[in-house]
Amino acid sequence: MKALERKFDKLGLRSSFDFVLHLPLRYEDETAITSPRQAPPGRPVLVEAPVKRAEVAYRPRRQLVVHAEGLVLRFFNFYGSQLKQFQRAAETGRRVRAFGEVRAGWFGAEMAHPRYRIVDEGEPLPDALTPIYPTTAGLSQAELRARVLEALDAESLDDTLPEGLRRRLELADFAQSVQLLHRPQPGADLSAAWRRVKFDELLAQQLSMRFAYRRRRSRAAPVLKVNGALLKRFLSALPFTLTRAQTRAMNEILRDLREPHPMQRLLQGDVGSGKTIVAAIACLAAVDSGTQAAVMAPTEILSEQHWRKFSEWLEPLGVRLGYLRGAMGKKEKKQMLEGRVLIGTHALIQEDVEFSRLGLAVVDEQHRFGVEQRLALRKKAAGLVPHQLMMSATPIPRTLSMTYFADLDVSTIDELPPGRGAVTTKLVSGKRRPDVLARIREACAEGQQAYWVCPVIEESKAGLSTALQTYEVLKKELSGLRVELLHGRMPAAEKAATMQAFQENRIQVLVATTVIEVGVDVPNASLMVIESAERFGLSQLHQLRGRIGRGARESVCILLYGELQGNARERLKVIFESADGFEIARKDLELRGPGEFLGERQSGAPLLRFADLERDKDLVEAAVQAAAELIDSDAVAARAHVQRWLGSRQELTHA
Ligand code: ADP
Ligand code: MG
């Protein structure tokens, strides 16, 4: 690749159409010349004057000074060739046309390092505004403009949308819209053009996901029995009564499993809403049908816990389970793989793992995995396409689930099991740490347990030392209590032993990093202290807090804060005021935007460039509806549309 192409590539500009859709950030008005003396302050203008002389000055610092009629130009960084260029212009009576802000200086009107050109008198002015494009280091606006104009000329800008749709939604013509946005007249109204572009972008995203969904859905998957003996026995003797929301989600899932096409369902529900048992029910349908089921979780702690839960629930039915650990001998692994329900972390997708007949793949805390990892799990099915159930405790706001999750069917558990004690959240300044320690002693004296969460990324070395330090300090501060440490870098067996001890109340205070963020379920733990809470994301705080309030007793979550900068106060207030995961997710999305909210692992695909999910809500709804219609009524047009928009870009999909 040539240097220039590499820079274009960095901006995602590969196909010629990518340039058509590389739209300006803003414009500069170079269509009229303003006299330097009449230039309005603070606004860049185009001025023109004959060059009189040019020289290098050294005070107050080295600079190129160009004297033109009624105007001085100063360049603090310049090439020798520029000096010569201006000197030649002065000799031959040529003029400088410069764009920038005019300021009052020593000699009258002045400009500092303006964009400029040497011209002859009467040289025509552009008849449109000058577009300023998003760019990258070393790539000039002129280079971008040239390629965009070339592309606008070369590409057919035919409308991909059927006439009827355009008329119904009162959408502007596509060709006119992009032409206008790249070269508008001064004062032109661009709103209709932007509306068209945003709609097209949303529609392309929507169609692309629907195509992905259809493609996967068109494949054959094993039909699973949903009224088999094991499932019936389990349902008739459940450890508790399912909530209405759990029952609804279960029915939606079982309905999918009966079909000869792979299920692609996202099961979302707030922390503690009881997704695990619904997954276990789905697994039983697979076992009843003579296939295997696999349950993949992002951490050892979580998969160990699933392993214990599933053993408790399924072993009495005589279902053989398999647990896959990262470091495991060949022989043991082989034995484990004979289980009917296989549980594990990424160990499930290691190279030497192969399932015999995988009917169902469950991915817990799916947002913690990348697309390739989820794909890898399905590929382990020896040619069979398994049904897929993804679970997430990060509730997805409606606008997001309509757009970024359009390639999945979604079940939502929107109620918590009864009998949960309330969780009170307190915001406490780090200075009041002694009070917090007293509180922990009190709780432990009553037989309760506590988490102390440190604000470190579980994998980072630097962070680890903070957790270790906190642990050492707390051990002294809480002497007499059984305090232990849990972090992501501990050997798996040690982690499991610590978790087990906490589960059995042999540990009273668990000092932990965010390894406990997902899934951990210890009902007797009713107190949580989160240190430097301002450093966590909103959804993360909500997840962490979801670890308590699991027993009948009232729980308390103490958010210790240090220095509150930026929107930290606002964020903590959201957590303080709301216990509703959906509400918190919505605020989180608002404060961080979809890119960060979803996390880069969610998919490497481009997020929306022009449309904004909140601001353009109406267009989102319109695009969702239009996509549903178009894909049925005119698949050719739908494909052409996706091709144009995504072209060389990666497709956005979850499964
Ligand atoms: P999550 O949705 O966060 O994964 P879990 O599946 O871990 O939640 O469930 C949280 C706790 O609630 C577990 O101890 C689970 O056994 C229990 N539970 C689930 N459903 C019910 C229910 N319907 N009634 C009572 N307890 C339940
Ligand atoms: Mg869970």
Characteristics of this structure?
655 residues, alpha/beta, 7-stranded mixed β-sheet, 7-stranded parallel β-sheet, 40% helix, binds adenosine-5'-diphosphate, binds magnesium ion
Structural description of this entry:
The strands form 4 sheets. Strands 6-7-4-3-2-5-8 form a 7-stranded mixed beta sheet. Strands 12-13-11-14-15-10-16 form a 7-stranded parallel beta sheet, with helices on both faces. It has a 6-stranded parallel beta sheet with strand order 17-22-21-18-20-19, with helices on both faces. Mean pLDDT is 89; it is low at 600-606. The two termini are 32 Å apart. The protein has 22 helices and 22 strands. With 655 residues, it is an alpha/beta fold.
Walk me through the topology.
Blueprint: H1 3-10, H2 16-20, E1 26-28, E2 45-57, E3 63-68, E4 71-75, H3 80-92, E5 95-100, E6 103-105, E7 108-112, E8 115-119, E9 130-132, H4 141-154, H5 163-168, H6 174-182, H7 191-217, H8 229-236, H9 244-257, E10 264-269, H10 275-288, E11 292-296, H11 300-314, E12 321-324, H12 330-336, E13 341-344, E14 358-363, H13 371-379, E15 387-392, H14 398-403, E16 409-413, E17 423-429, H15 433-445, E18 449-453, H16 461-477, E19 483-486, H17 492-503, E20 509-512, E21 525-530, H18 538-545, E22 555-561, H19 568-577, H20 581-598, H21 617-633, H22 635-646
Parallel strand pairs: 4-7, 10-15, 10-16, 11-13, 11-14, 12-13, 14-15, 17-22, 18-20, 18-21, 19-20, 21-22
Antiparallel strand pairs: 1-9, 2-3, 2-5, 3-4, 5-8, 6-7
Q: Low-confidence stretches at least 5 residues in length (pLDDT < 50)?
A: 600-606
Mean pLDDT: 89
Radius of gyration: 31 Å
The major β-sheet equals: 7 strands, mixed
The span between the termini is: 32 Å
User: Order of strands across the biggest sheet?
Assistant: 6-7-4-3-2-5-8
Number of strands: 22
- Helix-residue proportion: 40-55%
Backbone shape: globular
